[in-house]
Specification:
Length: about 290
């Protein structure tokens, strides 16, 4: 029985592969460029692409469980639908899909709306799936590390509603555990959604205060300017993606990313340990600055 991991060379997918291997799973990794892939011993590598249907058919042959992770790209929705259709044709019933929290609320944000459409397809096609809905990735703040440490300002548009930020390492471990739970079940398990959240809901000023503490100097919050946020992102991201991120930031300000009752306790029990807090991430950065 083989688990196919897509997005295997990214930060989440690579860690999912490592967790699965440590737990004795038979793992196949889908990659675009095998020459750049580096995985633990025993991982088989499938060369393919979401829009190359023949390569997907080959990669999914003999697979029992699929981890579906799609990058934020203009045709993300199409890529996911193609993958799910090929998976169904290959007889794959057990799926773990990485969506996003509040996908049904942030309806004007392109990559949220696309993921919600994928969720609906998973339901309507009768897949036995776990839909993981992570909140904001703590490691996204690596993009502004230099701004925080060099200019003393936290510029992500977090606002006052708060985000239940989660560490990428926790996301990957939970995904691996869910893949193994479905893979090893005698019968396919019912569809389930799990919010992936961190141990705290943090506002922009909360995060600035954490940085002030770990860096031992004042760090201010200056992130409510979503127009400026978009313009800064356009320096290193395509314009469509910078705009997508701006729209997401605007929903941060109006809606936040909030955990439901019991989410933290559920994830803590699943991992068998506490969730990693934002302060750990900030302290690690401060220690290397």
């Amino acid at each position: 029985m083989t688990i196919l991991v897509t997005g295997a060379t990214g930060n989440v997918g690579r860690q999912v592969v490592e967790h699965l291997v440590k737990r004795g799973a038979d793992v196949r990794a889908l990659v675009r460029d095998p020459s750049k892939a580096s995985f633990p011993a025993g991982v088989s590598v499938a060369h393919g692409d979401f829009l190359d249907v023949d390569s997907l058919r080959k990669a999914m042959s003999g697979v029992s469980t699929l981890f579906l992770l799609n990058a934020v790209v203009p045709d993300e929705f199409t890529q996911a639908l193609v993958a799910l259709n090929v998976a169904r044709s290959a007889g794959i019933e057990r799926i773990v899909y990485l969506s996003v929290i509040h996908a049904d609320v942030y309806v004007n944000v392109p990559h949220f709306a696309g993921k919600f459409g994928v969720e609906r397809m998973i339901e309507q096609m009768g897949f036995q799936a776990t839909i993981l809905r992570p909140a904001y990735f703590i490691q996204n703040d690596l993009m502004i590390e230099d701004v925080i440490t060099g200019y003393g300002t936290y510029t992500m548009p977090i606002g006052t509603k708060g985000l239940a930020m989660i560490d990428v390492r926790d996301i990957a471990e939970i995904a691996a555990l869910e893949l193994l739970r479905r893979e090893r079940s005698a019968e396919p398990l019912a569809l389930e959604r799990i919010n992936l959240v961190g141990p705290q809901t943090l506002t922009g000023t909360d995060i600035a205060a954490i940085w002030s503490d770990v860096l031992a100097r004042p760090i201010s919050y200056g992130g409510d300017d979503t127009e400026g946020f978009e313009q800064n992102l356009k320096q290193f991201l395509p314009a469509w993606m910078a705009y997508d991120m701006r729209l997401m930031g605007e929903r941060f300000l109006t809606d936040g990313m909030l955990a439901d009752a019991g989410d933290v306790e559920r994830l803590t029990a699943l991992l068998g340990r506490p969730l990693r807090p934002y302060r750990d991430f900030a302290s690690q950065i401060a220690g290397s600055a």
